[in-house]
Amino acid sequence: MSDLSEYFSVEENMSWTVVRSPHRARLTVEEVVRRLHGEPDTMTTGRPADCASDLEYDDLDDTVFVEQRGDAVIIVGFGTATAEEEALRRLGQNATVHSVFWTINNFNRLYYIVDGVVVTELDTLSPLDRRGTDPEALTDHLDALCNLHGSSDPGPDWETAMATLESLTGHRLDPDWFTRPQLLAKVNRH
Description:
The protein is α+β, with helices and mostly antiparallel strands.
């Protein structure tokens, strides 16, 4: 993650969400943008590393980068567009959502949502304190977060939170992803 520090500090604010629709045909980027109350016809492209450093702080909340990867849609933002539970529940209608986010004040969450229902929700800094309809559903994937929680190292480790999401989804966000052009959408428009 330090490779991105010259563009934008992902240590401050970031959300990463992976949405899949196991119930029907592949979920599309356009449908995901609609679920986030955006207009698919107005999508543009931009490099997340460049755009994030060029955008005004207020614009970050309503800007997401999206990518189709097979049957999954990847969503990355530097604001709260996909960090709020309501937005994640909308994304999870007839779909599965795995999401992690953090803000500058260390407020964070990792979510597992199926069909709009929160199955598991946890604070990545306190991974033993879980909520949802099945708080233990992610247990097999939380060893690294639990080990960090028990260590004496100061401060958050967002890389481990991202590695946990990678373990859950099989999808990876490497530093090069942020330097390549991605679809950019403005959301929360209604």
